[in-house]
Write a structure and sequence with these properties.
With about 250 residues, the chain is mostly helical. Helices cover about 75% and strands about 0% of the residues. It is built from twelve helices and no strands. Helix 5 packs parallel to helix 7 and helix 6 runs antiparallel to helix 12. The longest helix is centred in the last third of the chain and has 25 residues. The radius of gyration is 17 Å and the shape is globular.
Length: about 250
């Protein structure tokens, strides 16, 4: 997949990656939420997703290393992981055959779904007897969103919050689920031709802005009014979704 070597475009891409990583460093989530819609205005959506491959894998691996997660039950999350992976592969296969204009619109739908989850912050409790049913439903939904846009975070986070996990278990689960589902997601995208190995290798160049942005974000966190920041992020996401809907 070709990438324009125009210096202005390269600088803009680096700044977008820096901004997305800063948001992730400040809030713990947000790198693909911010970066992919903005990058999709400059390059094709598949290339925008590919450019985030190395930063997303590296940042989640870093989060696992830094938090040293405990209490993760792969058995408990197995059904979610299975359904999410299957749904993701099917969605990637489907999106590989649609036009860039259609993909932009589906990307906009994914962004609006994400914005809705961030806005309403579902707080209901899922009883143990219903957990398998919700694992299937959430896995299928997260897989669809991930297959279109790679942005599974808010869907999975809302589910784990509803399970009322302890802090250590939540941190261990969310970071590991991110990593375990990102690998087959990017593999499926390469297999079905959404992008090639060259685009993934290109994403290695996005690692320096990612590391720098996460450092800035951690420093910013102590000054952050989270509610105000969340509202700004929501306005941004809705504006990006509208822009992608209108993009030819």
């Amino acid at each position: 997949m070709p990438f324009d070597t125009d210096p202005v475009l390269i600088v803009l891409v680096a700044l977008i990656l820096l901004l997305g990583a800063t948001v992730k460093g400040a809030m713990g989530i947000g790198m693909p939420l911010v970066s992919i819609p903005l990058l999709s205005l400059l390059v094709s959506p598949p290339l925008a997703i590919a450019l985030l491959a190395a930063p997303i894998l590296a940042s989640n691996a870093m989060q696992i290393y830094e938090t040293k997660p405990r209490g993760l039950s792969i058995k408990r999350m197995g059904l979610l992981l299975l359904c999410q992976t299957v749904s993701m592969v099917v969605t990637v296969r489907w999106t590989a055959s649609i036009s860039p204009s259609e993909l932009n619109k589906w990307l906009g739908v994914s962004i609006l779904l994400t914005a809705a989850l961030l806005m309403f912050k579902p707080s209901f409790h899922i009883p143990a007897k219903l957990e398998p049913v919700f694992s299937v439903l959430v896995g299928l939904a997260a897989g669809f969103v991930g297959g279109v846009s790679s942005m599974t975070g808010p869907v999975v986070i809302a589910y784990l919050i509803a399970l009322r996990m302890r802090r250590e278990e939540f941190i261990g689960t969310i970071s590991t689920v991110y990593l375990l589902t990102a690998v087959p997601m990017y593999a499926a995208m390469m297999w079905f031709g959404r992008f090639g190995i060259g685009a993934v290798l290109l994403s290695l160049l996005a690692l320096p802005p990612m590391f720098l942005g996460m450092h800035f974000g951690r420093q910013l966190r102590q000054y952050l009014d989270e509610q105000r920041f969340r509202r700004i992020l929501l306005v941004f996401l809705v504006a990006m979704a509208a822009t992608l809907f209108l993009k030819p």
